[in-house]
Amino acid sequence: TPPTVSAIVKDLIERDIVQEIGKGDSSGGKKPILLRINSKAAYMIAVDLGGENGIRVALIDLSYNIVNEKFGPKIESLNSQKLKNALSVILKDFIKEINIPKEKIVSICIGVPGIIDLKLKKVTVAPYLNWEISLDDLTLKEIGIPIALENDVNLMALGEKTKGIAQKIDNFVFVGERTGIGAGIIINRKLYKGANNAAGEAGYLLIDPKYAPKNSRDYGCLEKLASYKIIVEKTKEKTGKNIRVIDVFKMAAEGDSV
């Protein structure tokens, strides 16, 4: 009802989450009051573990703008304990550097290249990383901010739906070429995870039987043929150069036959 809406808006204004920016044109009655979200009212920290350049930590405001960011070590070389230590150090340092009151940071979301068991709050399958890690391991109580885990490509799909090229698309599949190959599936504007939260593991598509995985921890067939690690390794063999996956993409865009 209008009174309920007014009460909610008043509360948001008092908490400085919503701000009045003037009055709009009248359609016959009183001029409406125009409102906007105060993007600086609260923040979240996003952590990406699946990038080529190592751990990426970013501060995001309520308008989804990246306010600040920091990079850490590559996770392929870390066991679960070293990963926990690295995350603890980089998050503590980052929170000090951004100089924002901790109470304004409402959550930390960690994007992980693997399958997550929501009941156990645990990454259960991450073939490239050779570890299992639980949310409890990453609680980092000394930081004092709630932490959530989600598959990294699922988060990328949600990002495209929220602020990217898929804002007006109700159903789509986002394929991510990262540590492995995965897909984020959006159906009826919502993220689809499947019965065991494993929907979208495109890296396990059976392209050639001789590359079939021997067990759930083995690389998937498609990943053995087309993951960025494989692409980079094969390109290094042909060129003799120490290159990154972004260099391979640039070469392809320029028509390089390699």
Automatic annotation (TrEMBL):
InterPro entries: ATPase_NBD (IPR043129), ROK (IPR000600), WH-like_DNA-bd_sf (IPR036388). The lineage of its organism: unclassified sequences, metagenomes, ecological metagenomes. CDD domains: ASKHA_ATPase_ROK (cd23763). Gene3D superfamilies: 3.30.420.40, Winged helix-like DNA-binding domain superfamily/Winged helix DNA-binding domain. This is ROK family protein. It comes from marine sediment metagenome. Pfam families: ROK (PF00480).
